[in-house]
């Protein structure tokens, strides 16, 4: 005679049974629509059992796993091989990650480069140059996959692809505030494909199909900080989301915080200037970041050190550097006369070279501190 089915706990889905594994229950919980992942993780950290947080609409874990397999995504839990947050657990905590592509390498060897979506062309160039320089120095560049500074930093890291003196297997990681199968913003769809093709990673707490919501991004920013040993803020208005990332890095204790300064009247620099006033390291160029990370920034046997030349650097930048290869200090007027460049082009080239770590400003003018790897 068939035994009657055991009554199910109120609120749990029809597929649930005590025989379901811990991993299965967490996968279903991660894919349950509605609650913010960080809020669910906080409740789990308080000691609540994952099964007690399931809802009638929590999906069957086998179906979720099949969808992840079809999308080429993985579901990571603390303690799994490849879990990147063991050394720097964020606050609020993170109970799981969805990952596409490579495993995020974690904070050791990773630097976050962040800023606003509507940054100036100069700050976009700064983010791209810093991304390229950090990747060329063997660091993984972590950012949020948004338009503006994030996209420029990711693109710069990808620009530095190919053999480098200290290559990193994972050039960049984009931490998203939606399901990894959703290209948000749509303008960055090609960038996300390029990241995966280059051996990078997309990561986040949101299951496939989860649409972006405003509430997702502040909690996303804490993950960016937790995945990096240092956070470089390239652009931040007074109430920018980048400051959330910066505060998360500073609150971690060991996290290093750096910022690119700007004029007092530049609204996009207000947050950066505030961070520097409060103790963040001022970034004039790549070397300041490398020094903060205790990485070599110059001085090699036989002359100036060699760096990978940014693939998208303009012709004017190369013309200016060619005038400085002998190490002499040269003023702006002399450079203008020798290169024949208009003042605006010369100024842009100098900024490009500074941010890429090829020149420095001295009282008497400019001096080369590195040369391109290629002749």
How would you portray this structure in words?
The protein is α/β, with parallel strands linked by helices. It has three domains: about 20-100, no CATH class; about 110-290, Rossmann fold (3-Layer(aba) Sandwich), CATH 3.40.50; about 305-370, Orthogonal Bundle (Arc Repressor Mutant, subunit A). It contains 13 helices and 13 strands. A nine-stranded mixed sheet has the order 1-2-6-5-4-3-7-8-9, sandwiched between helices. The protein is elongated and about 80 Å long.
Under the CATH scheme, which architecture of the largest domain would be assigned?
A: 3-Layer(aba) Sandwich
Going by helix content, strand content and strand pairing, the class is alpha/beta
Question: How many helical elements?
Answer: 13
- Predict the CATH topology of the largest domain: Rossmann fold
* Estimated radius of gyration: 23 Å
Order of helices and strands: HHHEEEHEHEHEHEHEHEHEHHHEEE
Strand content: 5-15%
Number of strands: 13
N→C terminal distance: 85 Å
Strand order of the largest sheet: 1-2-6-5-4-3-7-8-9
Shape: elongated
What value does the average pLDDT take? 87
Domain count? 3
CATH class of the largest domain: Alpha Beta
Biggest β-sheet, characterized? 9 strands, mixed
Q: How much helicity do the residues have?
A: 25-40%
Q: Which residues sit in consecutive blocks of at least 5 with pLDDT less than 50? A: 1-9, 162-166, 299-303
């Amino acid at each position: 005679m068939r035994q009657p089915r055991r009554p199910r706990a109120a609120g749990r889905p029809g597929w649930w049974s005590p025989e379901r594994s811990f991993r299965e229950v967490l996968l279903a919980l991660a894919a349950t629509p509605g609650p913010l992942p960080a809020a669910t993780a906080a409740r789990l950290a308080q000691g609540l059992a994952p099964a007690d947080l399931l809802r009638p609409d929590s999906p069957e874990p086998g179906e979720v796993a099949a969808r992840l397999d079809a999308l080429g995504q993985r579901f990571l839990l603390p303690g799994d091989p490849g879990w990147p947050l063991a050394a720097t657990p964020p606050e609020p905590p993170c109970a799981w990650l969805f990952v596409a592509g490579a495993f995020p390498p974690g904070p050791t060897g990773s630097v976050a480069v962040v800023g606003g979506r509507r940054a100036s062309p100069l700050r976009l160039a700064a983010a791209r140059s810093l991304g390229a320089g950090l990747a060329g120095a063997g660091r993984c560049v972590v950012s949020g996959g948004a338009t503006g500074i994030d996209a420029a930093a990711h693109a710069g890291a990808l620009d530095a692809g190919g053999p480098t003196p200290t290559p990193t297997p994972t050039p960049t990681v984009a931490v998203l505030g939606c399901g990894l199968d959703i290209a948000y913003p749509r303008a960055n769809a090609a960038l996300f494909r390029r990241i995966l093709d280059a051996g990078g990673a997309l990561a986040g707490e949101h299951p496939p199909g989860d649409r972006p919501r405003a509430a997702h991004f502040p909690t996303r920013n804490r993950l960016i900080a937790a995945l990096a040993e240092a956070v470089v803020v390239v652009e931040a208005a007074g109430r920018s989301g980048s400051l959330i990332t910066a505060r998360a890095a500073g609150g971690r204790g060991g996290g290093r915080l750096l910022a690119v300064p700007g004029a007092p009247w530049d609204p996009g620099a207000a947050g950066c200037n505030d961070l520097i006033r409060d103790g963040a390291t001022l970034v004039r160029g790549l070397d300041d970041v490398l020094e903060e990370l205790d990485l070599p920034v110059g001085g090699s046997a036989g002359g100036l050190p060699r760096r990978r030349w940014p693939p998208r650097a303009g012709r004017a930048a190369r013309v200016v550097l060619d005038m400085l290869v002998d190490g002499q200090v040269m003023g702006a007027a002399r450079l203008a006369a020798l290169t024949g460049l208009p003042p605006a082009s010369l100024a842009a080239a100098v900024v490009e070279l500074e941010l890429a770590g090829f020149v420095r400003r001295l009282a008497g003018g400019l001096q080369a501190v590195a040369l391109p790897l290629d002749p």
